[in-house]
């Protein structure tokens, strides 16, 4: 039963993925066997007040299916959101590096499904914890499915997959009380970290603003590992994969994240779904860093070490194509929850390296799908099914959907003329790259992996001053939740190996002294190993800073899909609302009308303006900027609305752009913000404040510029506003 697909010259179409989609509208209700149901409201009984009968097969089928609706959630990455899309490569320039057709033929549009996720929390946890985000893409190519399974951080915590269960056991809720949920700020995680210096690079990323993205649409993605590209001649090049968001890389601040999780736990999921629904399709460019095989050992780090990145200043990222997410799932469970990714899903032209973390993942992902999805036939679930036809001798198993015809299910055979037959490499058959191996079997870690601190230092040195401040605050918050002094002290000791100033600031915030690490610093080695052989290697890299690592250097000026709150009440100036709304929406921003009550406000001429949310159901943490239109009566009402004043204070605390028109400034003057305005009456626009008069024709232009700058972190130096 071979699946057919729409194609032009063998090019699969996105609609091919819409197989097995059921739409019950206008249809008769049936059992799962197709039997039409007469009564779905009453079970079969012995009399209308009698016992329910065992023979009620309709009841049994319905209840049995309900009892089994939940499958085991993912052990990690349980909380996720997904979307369908397409990928198109820009040109054929990668032909000299790979024979993968979807990476070399610009005439092809490859359908795909992308899933974003948090790592630590359960499926029902909130969207904006401090956490790594998964970024997994399944390409449905004509040569088979290719899965690029990565994160929004380019490095990982550990170097060898054998430590992965330890890492996850440590970060998950503690086993005696299953607390805390979706959080790394607890004893067991930092106990593991403080004894495992290889974690420090990823820890620096986790403590940075990268761990609390503004939107799934505004974060980078990375393949993490070094892979291989193989060309038609069989030559290999090393490659690292990058996803670069066209909206830039933006985050929320920590206080904001805490409030978002309470105000809207589905913040990221809702944002992604609404953006696609509105036609504001999220886009990323796929980039590659390519290293010739002969240059494998020319760096001051090991390419096979998953705790290391290749600085873009050393090997630039070449942008080769674009991914566009343009369709939401029809059914969350069937698609987002059942999608099964695996780094071992390859196509000809892409292959593995000996990265020990990657090697372990190649086993783990298949094993996980067997547990979650019930057996070996998970590839037949529609969201996982390849567009390329499947023909092999695998048979039976739980939930088998393919109906295989014929008498043979083995190879070689003569009864079926040898089919399905093997394919030559020249005709597209996959062949593993022939890498020469001559080594002893050992349980050991390469000495070239022992530099644990130079790249964390590179990352910290590359951050802007506000970003560095946020890293310090994050360490103080996380370790402040640890109640074992020895763990805090060990962690500060590791920070001394990265940056002395960082260690001192964190120690001061915790009330500790700065102490050099105990000896030995690395506790990860076998029982018979010499600890001296596994201590960190001191490396003095030539590159001290990488601007590409700082979010301060991201794309700015684009306000598309930014959420702007208009604070209104009855009597608001309708022209002030409509003029600014039109200017913002022309730039792709999305306006939310907020008022003391739901439904409508009446403008100064008595016309209704539809309200999106009341102050009771909405908060400043859910938007990117706020605007206070003019209107005497509206402003007077808002002055008497404490939640409106709090809205302003909170937005200012979180460094967001604020604009007013006419008497809207009076609302600012009765807020806590005014205390800081008095101290800094000049350069308000440099601080993201656009206080315009009714006659100011440039107010919208100034406000759009302010929103495009994302945040105004200079405000953080002024002290905290009680919001």
From TrEMBL:
Note down the stretches annotated as region Disordered. Answer: 1-43, 521-543
Comp. bias (Polar residues): 27-43
Give GO terms for biological process: hydrogen peroxide catabolic process; response to oxidative stress
Q: Name one GO cellular component term.
A: cytosol
Mind listing the UniProt keywords for this protein, alphabetically?
Heme, Hydrogen peroxide, Iron, Metal-binding, Oxidoreductase, Peroxidase
Where are the active-site residues found? 77, 151
Q: Which family does it belong to?
A: Belongs to the catalase family. HPII subfamily.
What EC number is given for this enzyme?
1.11.1.6
Q: Which InterPro entries does its entry note?
A: Catalase, Catalase_AS, Catalase_clade2, Catalase_clade2_helical, Catalase_core, Catalase_haem_BS, Catalase_immune_responsive, Catalase_large_C
Q: Which SMART domains match?
A: Catalase (SM01060)
What is this protein called in UniProt? Catalase
Q: Which GO molecular function, any one, fits this protein according to its record?
A: heme binding
Q: Name one Pfam family in it.
A: Catalase-rel
Cofactor(s) the record lists: heme
Provide the Catalase core domain boundaries.
30-419
Cross-linked residues, 3'-histidyl-3-tyrosine (His-Tyr): 342-365
Q: Which reaction does it catalyse?
A: 2 H2O2 = O2 + 2 H2O
Please explain the role this protein plays, according to its UniProt record: Decomposes hydrogen peroxide into water and oxygen; serves to protect cells from the toxic effects of hydrogen peroxide.
Coiled coil region boundaries: none
Which positions in this protein are listed as binding heme?
74, 115, 164, 361, 365, 372
């Amino acid at each position: 039963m071979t699946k057919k697909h729409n194609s032009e010259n063998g090019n699969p179409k996105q609609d091919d993925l819409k197989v097995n989609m059921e739409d019950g509208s206008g249809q008769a209700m049936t059992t799962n066997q197709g039997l039409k149901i007469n009564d779905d409201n009453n079970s079969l009984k012995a009399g209308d007040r009698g016992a329910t009968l065992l023979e009620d097969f309709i009841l049994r089928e319905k209840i049995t299916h309900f009892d089994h609706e939940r499958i085991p959630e993912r052990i990690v990455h349980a909380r996720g959101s997904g979307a369908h899309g397409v990928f198109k490569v820009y040109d054929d320039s990668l032909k000299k590096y790979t024979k993968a057709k979807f990476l070399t033929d610009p005439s092809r549009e490859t359908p795909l499904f992308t899933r974003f996720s948090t790592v630590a929390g359960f499926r029902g946890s909130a969207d904006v914890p401090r956490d790594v985000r998964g970024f997994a893409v399944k390409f449905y190519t004509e040569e088979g499915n290719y899965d690029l399974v990565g994160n929004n951080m380019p490095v990982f915590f550990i170097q060898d997959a054998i430590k992965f269960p330890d890492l996850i056991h440590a970060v998950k809720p503690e086993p005696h009380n299953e607390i805390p949920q979706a959080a790394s700020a607890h004893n067991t995680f930092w106990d593991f970290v403080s004894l495992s210096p290889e974690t420090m690079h990823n820890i620096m990323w986790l403590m940075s603003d990268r761990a609390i993205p503004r939107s799934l649409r505004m974060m980078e993605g990375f393949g993490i590992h070094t892979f291989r590209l193989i060309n038609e001649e069989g030559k290999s090049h090393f490659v690292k994969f990058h996803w670069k968001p066209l909206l830039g890389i933006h985050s929320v601040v920590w206080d904001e994240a805490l409030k978002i999780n309470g105000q809207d736990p589905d913040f990221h999921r809702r944002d992604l779904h609404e953006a696609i629904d509105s036609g504001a399709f999220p886009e990323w460019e796929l980039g590659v860093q390519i290293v010739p095989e002969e240059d494998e050992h020319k760096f001051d780090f090991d390419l096979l070490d998953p705790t290391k990145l290749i600085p873009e200043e050393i090997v630039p990222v070449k942008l080769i194509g674009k991914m566009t997410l343009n369709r939401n799932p029809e059914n969350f469970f069937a698609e987002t929850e059942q999608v099964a990714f695996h780094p071992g899903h390859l196509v000809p032209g892409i292959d593995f390296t000996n990265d020990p973390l990657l090697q372990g993942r190649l086993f783990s992902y298949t094993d996980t799908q067997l547990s979650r999805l019930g057996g070996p036939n998970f590839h037949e679930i529609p969201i996982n099914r390849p567009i390329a036809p499947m023909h092999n001798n695998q048979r039976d198993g739980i939930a088998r959907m393919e109906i295989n015809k014929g008498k043979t299910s083995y190879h070689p055979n003569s009864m079926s003329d040898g089919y399905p037959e093997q394919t030559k490499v020249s005709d597209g058959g996959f062949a593993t790259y022939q890498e020469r191996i001559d080594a002893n079997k050992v349980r050991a870690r390469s000495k070239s992996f022992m530099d644990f601190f130079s790249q964390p230092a590179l990352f910290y040195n590359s951050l802007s001053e506000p970003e560095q401040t946020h890293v310090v605050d994050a360490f103080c918050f996380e370790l402040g939740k640890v109640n074992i002094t020895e763990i805090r002290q060990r962690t500060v000791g590791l920070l001394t190996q990265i940056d002395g100033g960082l260690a001192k600031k964190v120690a001061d915030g915790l009330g500790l002294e700065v102490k050099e690490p105990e000896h030995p610093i690395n506790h990860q080695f076998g029982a018979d190993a010499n600890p001296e052989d596994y201590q960190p290697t001191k490396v003095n890299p030539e590159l001290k800073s990488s601007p590409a690592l700082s979010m301060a250097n991201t794309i700015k000026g684009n306000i598309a899909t930014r959420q702007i709150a208009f604070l209104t009440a009855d009597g608001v100036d309708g022209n002030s609302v409509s003029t600014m709304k039109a200017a913002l929406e022309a730039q792709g921003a999305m306006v939310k009308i907020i008022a003391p009550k739901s439904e409508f406000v009446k403008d100064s001429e008595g016309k209704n303006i539809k309200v999106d949310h009341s102050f009771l159901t909405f908060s400043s943490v859910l938007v990117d900027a706020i605007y206070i239109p003019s209107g005497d009566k509206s402003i007077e009402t808002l002055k008497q609305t404490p939640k409106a004043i709090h809205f302003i204070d909170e937005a200012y605390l979180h460094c967001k752009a604020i604009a007013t028109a006419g008497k809207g400034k009076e609302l600012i003057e009765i807020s806590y913000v005014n205390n800081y305005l008095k101290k800094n009456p000049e350069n308000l626009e440099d601080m993201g404040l656009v206080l315009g008069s009714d006659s100011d024709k440039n107010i919208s232009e100034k406000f759009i510029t302010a929103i495009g700058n994302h945040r105004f972190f200079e405000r953080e130096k002024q002290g905290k506003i009680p919001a």
